[in-house]
Amino acid sequence: MINNFIESLKYSPKRADVFNPWWETDPENDIDDKGPIIRRQQLFQYLNERIGKAKFLLVGEAIGYQGGHFTGIPMTSERILLGGHVKKGILPEHVFYGIEINRTSKPKLKPQGFTEPTGTIVWGHIIQSNLNPRDFILWNAFPWHPFKPKSGLLSNRTPNNREFQFCIGILTRLIQITKIGNIIAVGEKSFNILNQLGKNCKKVRHPANGGAGKYRKQLTKIIS
Questions:
Q1: CA 112, CA 51: separation in Å to the nearest integer?
Q2: What is the pLDDT of residues 162-203, one digit of tens each?
Q3: 3-class DSSP assignment, residue 30
Q4: Residue 224: predicted pLDDT
Q5: How many other β-carbons are positioned within 10 Å of the β-carbon of residue 53?
Q6: Contact 223, 56 (CB under 8 A)
Q7: Nearest CA-CA partner of 74 in 186, 214, 210, 193
Q8: What whole-number distance in Å separates Cα of residue 134 and Cα of residue 141?
Q9: Domains defined along the chain, listed by start
Q10: What is the DSSP code string of 161-198?
Protein backbone atom coordinates (compact mmCIF):
# COMPACT_ATOMS: atom_id res chain seq x y z
CA MET A 1 0.00 0.00 0.00
CA ILE A 2 2.65 2.54 1.04
CA ASN A 3 5.05 1.35 -1.63
CA ASN A 4 2.36 1.77 -4.28
CA PHE A 5 1.66 5.27 -3.03
CA ILE A 6 5.36 6.22 -3.18
CA GLU A 7 5.53 4.69 -6.65
CA SER A 8 2.71 7.03 -7.73
CA LEU A 9 4.86 10.01 -6.70
CA LYS A 10 7.12 9.18 -9.64
CA TYR A 11 4.66 10.88 -11.99
CA SER A 12 5.37 14.53 -11.22
CA PRO A 13 4.67 17.30 -13.75
CA LYS A 14 7.05 17.26 -16.69
CA ARG A 15 8.39 20.72 -15.99
CA ALA A 16 11.94 21.97 -15.69
CA ASP A 17 11.03 23.91 -12.54
CA VAL A 18 9.62 21.00 -10.51
CA PHE A 19 11.95 18.68 -8.57
CA ASN A 20 10.83 15.20 -7.52
CA PRO A 21 12.73 14.35 -4.29
CA TRP A 22 11.88 10.63 -4.34
CA TRP A 23 12.62 9.87 -7.95
CA GLU A 24 15.19 12.45 -9.05
CA THR A 25 18.76 13.24 -8.07
CA ASP A 26 19.74 16.84 -7.36
CA PRO A 27 23.08 16.80 -9.23
CA GLU A 28 24.24 20.08 -7.74
CA ASN A 29 23.38 19.50 -4.09
CA ASP A 30 22.99 15.77 -3.37
CA ILE A 31 25.95 13.94 -1.85
CA ASP A 32 25.66 11.19 -4.45
CA ASP A 33 23.13 9.43 -6.65
CA LYS A 34 21.59 7.55 -3.71
CA GLY A 35 19.56 10.59 -2.66
CA PRO A 36 16.22 9.48 -4.15
CA ILE A 37 16.55 5.99 -2.64
CA ILE A 38 17.23 7.42 0.83
CA ARG A 39 14.34 9.86 0.56
CA ARG A 40 11.96 7.07 -0.48
CA GLN A 41 13.11 4.92 2.44
CA GLN A 42 12.63 7.76 4.89
CA LEU A 43 9.18 8.64 3.57
CA PHE A 44 8.18 4.96 3.75
CA GLN A 45 9.30 4.67 7.36
CA TYR A 46 7.62 7.95 8.31
CA LEU A 47 4.28 6.83 6.84
CA ASN A 48 4.63 3.25 8.06
CA GLU A 49 4.95 4.41 11.67
CA ARG A 50 1.75 6.49 11.36
CA ILE A 51 -0.77 4.91 9.02
CA GLY A 52 -3.47 3.24 11.08
CA LYS A 53 -2.51 5.31 14.14
CA ALA A 54 -2.48 8.98 13.08
CA LYS A 55 -5.51 11.10 13.95
CA PHE A 56 -4.75 14.30 12.04
CA LEU A 57 -3.62 15.06 8.49
CA LEU A 58 -1.96 18.47 8.13
CA VAL A 59 -1.85 19.57 4.50
CA GLY A 60 0.49 22.40 3.56
CA GLU A 61 1.27 23.92 0.18
CA ALA A 62 4.39 22.35 -1.39
CA ILE A 63 7.75 20.75 -0.62
CA GLY A 64 10.49 23.31 0.08
CA TYR A 65 14.20 23.15 -0.62
CA GLN A 66 15.01 23.47 3.07
CA GLY A 67 12.69 20.64 4.01
CA GLY A 68 11.38 17.67 2.07
CA HIS A 69 13.67 18.32 -0.90
CA PHE A 70 16.44 16.58 1.04
CA THR A 71 14.56 14.51 3.64
CA GLY A 72 11.70 13.19 1.53
CA ILE A 73 9.31 14.09 4.35
CA PRO A 74 7.01 17.13 4.08
CA MET A 75 7.62 20.03 6.47
CA THR A 76 10.64 18.21 7.89
CA SER A 77 14.22 19.42 7.59
CA GLU A 78 17.55 17.63 7.72
CA ARG A 79 18.41 19.74 10.76
CA ILE A 80 15.59 17.96 12.62
CA LEU A 81 16.67 14.49 11.45
CA LEU A 82 20.31 15.17 12.33
CA GLY A 83 19.45 16.24 15.87
CA GLY A 84 20.08 19.93 15.34
CA HIS A 85 16.85 21.00 17.06
CA VAL A 86 17.16 18.93 20.23
CA LYS A 87 17.37 22.12 22.32
CA LYS A 88 13.91 22.97 20.99
CA GLY A 89 12.67 19.58 22.11
CA ILE A 90 12.42 18.18 18.57
CA LEU A 91 14.16 14.81 18.39
CA PRO A 92 14.94 12.74 15.28
CA GLU A 93 12.89 9.85 16.69
CA HIS A 94 9.83 12.08 16.72
CA VAL A 95 9.91 11.77 12.92
CA PHE A 96 10.84 8.08 12.67
CA TYR A 97 13.07 5.62 14.46
CA GLY A 98 12.83 2.29 12.62
CA ILE A 99 15.72 2.85 10.20
CA GLU A 100 19.03 4.67 10.09
CA ILE A 101 18.83 8.37 9.31
CA ASN A 102 20.86 9.59 6.36
CA ARG A 103 21.37 13.07 5.01
CA THR A 104 21.26 13.58 1.24
CA SER A 105 22.55 17.17 0.93
CA LYS A 106 26.26 17.88 0.64
CA PRO A 107 27.59 18.76 4.11
CA LYS A 108 29.51 21.73 2.74
CA LEU A 109 26.20 23.45 1.92
CA LYS A 110 24.93 23.36 5.51
CA PRO A 111 27.09 21.33 7.95
CA GLN A 112 24.13 20.80 10.30
CA GLY A 113 21.69 20.29 7.45
CA PHE A 114 19.16 22.70 5.99
CA THR A 115 16.54 24.00 8.38
CA GLU A 116 13.03 25.03 7.34
CA PRO A 117 11.22 27.67 9.46
CA THR A 118 7.76 26.27 8.72
CA GLY A 119 8.80 22.73 9.58
CA THR A 120 10.44 23.85 12.82
CA ILE A 121 7.29 25.71 13.86
CA VAL A 122 5.00 22.79 13.00
CA TRP A 123 7.09 20.14 14.75
CA GLY A 124 7.92 22.45 17.65
CA HIS A 125 4.26 23.14 18.39
CA ILE A 126 3.39 19.44 18.32
CA ILE A 127 6.16 18.59 20.77
CA GLN A 128 5.79 21.62 23.03
CA SER A 129 2.05 20.92 23.34
CA ASN A 130 2.87 17.41 24.60
CA LEU A 131 1.07 15.86 21.65
CA ASN A 132 2.00 12.48 20.20
CA PRO A 133 3.95 13.17 16.98
CA ARG A 134 2.59 9.95 15.52
CA ASP A 135 -0.91 11.34 15.76
CA PHE A 136 0.01 13.63 12.85
CA ILE A 137 0.84 13.06 9.20
CA LEU A 138 2.28 16.09 7.45
CA TRP A 139 1.72 16.42 3.70
CA ASN A 140 1.37 19.01 0.95
CA ALA A 141 -1.35 19.73 -1.60
CA PHE A 142 1.43 19.89 -4.22
CA PRO A 143 3.72 17.06 -3.09
CA TRP A 144 6.82 17.93 -5.12
CA HIS A 145 9.25 20.86 -4.95
CA PRO A 146 8.50 23.81 -7.27
CA PHE A 147 11.45 26.17 -7.65
CA LYS A 148 12.40 29.33 -9.50
CA PRO A 149 14.30 28.48 -12.68
CA LYS A 150 16.51 31.57 -12.51
CA SER A 151 17.38 30.92 -8.87
CA GLY A 152 17.98 27.18 -9.16
CA LEU A 153 17.03 24.22 -7.02
CA LEU A 154 17.77 26.01 -3.76
CA SER A 155 14.70 28.22 -4.09
CA ASN A 156 10.93 27.95 -3.72
CA ARG A 157 7.97 29.17 -5.72
CA THR A 158 4.21 28.86 -5.36
CA PRO A 159 2.63 26.21 -7.60
CA ASN A 160 0.17 27.54 -10.15
CA ASN A 161 -3.46 26.43 -10.35
CA ARG A 162 -2.80 23.91 -13.10
CA GLU A 163 -0.11 22.28 -10.97
CA PHE A 164 -2.41 22.05 -7.98
CA GLN A 165 -5.06 20.41 -10.18
CA PHE A 166 -2.48 17.96 -11.51
CA CYS A 167 -1.82 16.44 -8.11
CA ILE A 168 -5.38 16.05 -6.80
CA GLY A 169 -5.15 12.29 -7.40
CA ILE A 170 -2.09 11.98 -5.15
CA LEU A 171 -3.82 13.79 -2.29
CA THR A 172 -6.94 11.66 -2.76
CA ARG A 173 -4.90 8.45 -2.55
CA LEU A 174 -3.15 9.59 0.62
CA ILE A 175 -6.47 10.36 2.30
CA GLN A 176 -7.75 6.94 1.25
CA ILE A 177 -4.81 4.97 2.62
CA THR A 178 -4.52 6.93 5.87
CA LYS A 179 -8.27 6.86 6.53
CA ILE A 180 -7.92 10.06 8.54
CA GLY A 181 -11.10 12.05 9.03
CA ASN A 182 -9.54 15.03 10.79
CA ILE A 183 -7.97 17.00 7.95
CA ILE A 184 -6.41 20.39 8.58
CA ALA A 185 -5.42 22.73 5.76
CA VAL A 186 -2.33 24.80 6.49
CA GLY A 187 -3.03 27.91 4.44
CA GLU A 188 -5.56 29.04 1.88
CA LYS A 189 -4.26 27.15 -1.15
CA SER A 190 -4.42 23.72 0.44
CA PHE A 191 -7.84 24.61 1.87
CA ASN A 192 -9.13 25.36 -1.63
CA ILE A 193 -7.83 22.05 -3.02
CA LEU A 194 -9.36 20.05 -0.18
CA ASN A 195 -12.68 21.82 -0.72
CA GLN A 196 -12.56 20.80 -4.39
CA LEU A 197 -12.23 17.21 -3.22
CA GLY A 198 -15.30 17.68 -1.08
CA LYS A 199 -13.36 17.01 2.09
CA ASN A 200 -14.64 18.41 5.35
CA CYS A 201 -11.57 20.15 6.73
CA LYS A 202 -10.53 22.92 9.07
CA LYS A 203 -8.15 25.72 8.10
CA VAL A 204 -5.28 27.27 10.02
CA ARG A 205 -3.06 30.22 9.17
CA HIS A 206 0.16 29.25 7.42
CA PRO A 207 2.99 29.83 9.91
CA ALA A 208 5.23 31.59 7.36
CA ASN A 209 5.50 35.37 7.05
CA GLY A 210 4.62 36.19 10.63
CA GLY A 211 1.79 33.70 10.97
CA ALA A 212 3.36 31.42 13.59
CA GLY A 213 1.41 32.74 16.58
CA LYS A 214 -1.94 32.53 14.84
CA TYR A 215 -1.08 29.09 13.47
CA ARG A 216 -0.36 27.76 16.97
CA LYS A 217 -3.49 29.29 18.46
CA GLN A 218 -5.78 28.00 15.71
CA LEU A 219 -4.29 24.49 15.63
CA THR A 220 -4.53 24.18 19.40
CA LYS A 221 -8.22 25.12 19.27
CA ILE A 222 -8.93 22.54 16.56
CA ILE A 223 -7.22 19.57 18.17
CA SER A 224 -8.16 20.29 21.79
A1: 30
A2: 999 999 999 999 999 999 999 999 999 999 999 999 888 999
A3: strand
A4: 85
A5: 11
A6: yes
A7: 186
A8: 20
A9: 23-223 (3.40.470.10)
A10: HHHHHHTHHHHHHHHHHHT--EEEEESHHHHHHHHHTT
